[in-house]
Amino acid sequence: MKVVKFGGSSLASGEQVKKVFKIVTSDPERKIVVVSAPGKRNSSDIKVTDLLISCAEKYLKNEDASDICETIIERYHSIAEELNLSNDIIQKITDDLLSLLNGDKSNRASFIEAVKASGEDNNAKLIAAFFKHQGLDAHYVSPKEAGLLVSNDPGNAQVLPESYERLYELRKKSGIIVFPGFFGYNETGEVVTFSRSGSDITGSILANGVKADIYENFTDVDAVYAVNPNIVNHPKEIRELTYREMRELSYGGFSVFHDEALIPAFRAGIPVNVKNTNNPEAPGTKIVNDRENTNGPVVGIASDEGFCSIYVSKYLMNREIGFGRRLLLILEEFGLSYEHIPSGIDDITVILRQNQIDENIEKHIVKRITEDLHADEVKIERNLVLIMLVGEGMRQNIGTAARASKALAEAKVNIEMINQGSSEVSMMFGVKESVEKKAVQALYEEFFVRVMV
Ligand SMILES: Nc1ncnc2c1ncn2[C@@H]1O[C@H](COP(=O)(O)OP(=O)(O)O)[C@@H](O)[C@H]1O
Ligand SMILES: N[C@@H](CC(=O)OP(=O)(O)O)C(=O)O
Predict the structure, then answer these.
(1) Which protein residue's CA is at the shortest distance from atom 3 of ligand 2?
(2) Does the beta carbon of 186 lie inside 6 Å of ligand 2?
(3) What is the 3 state secondary structure string of 292-342?
(4) Phi then psi for 184, rounded to 5 degrees?
C-alpha cells in the first residue's frame, strides 16, 4: 500500500487535479491520497491558505472581508468548473466557509485554526467528488473520524502517539481515501494545524499509521536538487538521500520537504519518494535509511535566512561553572528558543530565529546578560543566513571544511561563524544575508562543478 501526498502546486487548477487523478489511478497500490489546499498557479498568485488567514484576521477585526472571501470561493469554483463538476460542491464549500467565519470567535486562535484548515478540508471534499465523478470508489475521510489526534499547540501541532493505532484501521477501508493534510484534532475535538507546509507531515503520519510500503510526496520539481533551484540554475538532481541528510537539508532551507515530516516515516522504516506531478515518470528522489556513498563528501547545500546571533564574551568563561546555564536561563525567561551554540574559551554565541526578538526586547536582553553575568561584551548581530553543507560522506573525507572556507574566501565572503562537529553529517556557516547567493553559488561550484576525486 502506498500513501501519496500532493502539494498545493499539484492542486492549483483543474488541469493539475486531472494529472493527480491519472497518477492515482495508474497504480492500484496508491490507496491513501493526502491533499493540500490549492497553491500558487504562478509566481504572483496567492495560496488559498494565505487568503484564508487574511480573511479570518479581517473577521476578527470586524473589517470587510467580502473581496477575499469571494477570491477563495472563486479558486474552488474555477477548479470545479474545469473538472465539469456540478455546483453542489461549490455550494457546500461556500456554506462551510461562511459558517466557520460567522462562528464562535471567543477563542481567537481556535477561530483562525479552523478557518485556516478549511483550505485542505474543502479541497479534499472537492477532489473526492471529482474522483467519484470519474467513476472511482473514492471517499473523503476526516482526520477526526480517522483519529488523528494532535497536541493543542496552534500552528505547531505535534501528533499524539495514540493516533497511529487508530490510523491503522484506515487499511480496512475500501476504495481510495482522500484525506486533508495540515491538521488534526486536539483532545477536546478542536482543529489544530501543523506548522506551515504541514501536509507533508500528515502524509508521513498516515504512512506510519497504515504501515505503508512507501510514502510518495508529489510536488512540482523532478527531484530534490543539490541546491535550491532559485539560487543556482539547473542544479544537480539527488537520486538518493538518507533520512538524516534530508532532515538536515529540510531544516537548513530545502522547502521542498518539511523537516518535521521525516520522523514518522523514519520511525516506521518507510522510504519516502519525492516526485513530480508534472513529470511522474521521472524517478525523483528516494529518502532511505542507508545509501551507497557515491557522491563525495557533500550531497546538498541548504541556506536559510532570518537568524541573529547573541555574542557574549567574558575572560575565563571556561572556568566559570554554570555560565552557560545562566545565559540560557535568561533566554528562557524572555521566552526565546535557540538553534545553535558555538563556543570558544572566553566566548559563546547563541544563534536564534530573529523574528523572536524585536529591537525593544533586544535592549533588555543585552542589559540583563551584561549585568547578571558580568560579561565583558554582549553583541546582537542581525540578518544572518545559515548555510548547511550536508552529506554522510563527510565522516570519511578529510578537508571538507578547508575546501568550503577556501571557496568562500575566493568569493570574498566573510564567514561570521562556523559550527562543525555537533552533527556528523553537516557543517554550518553563518554569513550576512547580503552575500547568501554568492556564498551558496561558490560552495556549489566547489563541491558539484569542480568535481575533485
Ligand atoms: N533543493 C531543492 N530541491 C528542489 N526544490 C527546492 C529545493 N529548495 C527549494 N525548493 C523549492 O521547493 C518547491 C516545492 O515545494 P513547495 O512549493 O512547498 O511544493 P508543494 O506545493 O508541492 O508543497 C520547488 O518548486 C522549489 O522552488
Ligand atoms: N496549505 C498549507 C499546508 C501545505 O502543506 O501546503 P503546501 O503543500 O502548498 O506546501 C500551507 O500553505 O502551509
Answers:
(1) 197
(2) no
(3) CCCCCCCCEEEEEEEEEEEEEECCCHHHCCCHHHHHHHHHHHCCCCEEECC
(4) -140, -160
Neighbours of 32 (CB within 10 A): 27
Measured CA to CA, the distance from residue 161 to residue 149 in angstroms comes to 8
Ligand nearest to the CA of 390: 1
pLDDT in tens, 40-59: 999 999 999 999 999 999 99
Q: What is the pLDDT of residues 432-452, one digit of tens each?
A: 999 999 999 999 999 999 765
How many Å lie between the centroid of ligand 1 and the Cα of residue 222?
10
Nearest atom in ligand 2 to 195's CA = 13
Q: Residue 32, SS3?
A: strand
Please tell me the distance from the alpha carbon of residue 90 to that of residue 73, in angstroms, as a whole number. 8
Lookup: cell for 90: 461549490
Ligand 1 — pocket residues by CB below 6 A?
Answer: 7-10, 36, 39, 197, 219-221, 224-225, 227-230, 254-256
Cell numbers found for residue 442:
561558490
C-alpha 28 – ligand 2 centre gap (Å): 26
Helix (H) or strand (E) segment spanning residue 401: helix 400-410
In this structure, the strands spanning 240-242 and 285-288 are parallel
Mean pLDDT of the chain: 95
Whole-model pTM over 0.90: yes
> What is the 3-class SS of 7-18, one letter each residue?
CHHHHCCHHHHH
Strand-strand pairing, 338-340 and 347-353: antiparallel
Cell numbers standing for residue 415: 564567514
Q: Which residues contact 305 (CB under 8 A, 6 or more apart)?
A: 383, 385, 433, 436
Atom 26 of ligand 1 has which residue's CA nearest to it?
256
The yes/no answer to whether this complex scores an ipTM above 0.95 is: yes
Q: Which three cell numbers stand for residue 399?
A: 578537508
Q: Is the CB of 8 under 6 A from ligand 2?
A: yes
Query: Quick one: how far is CA 25 from the chain centroid?
Result: 27
* Closest residue to atom 5 of ligand 2, CA basis: 197
Helix (H, G, I), strand (E, B) or coil at 57: helix
Reading the block at residue 221, the C-alpha cell is 520539481
Ligand with an atom nearest the CA of residue 257:
1
- CB neighbours of 28 closer than 8 A, spacing ≥ 6? none
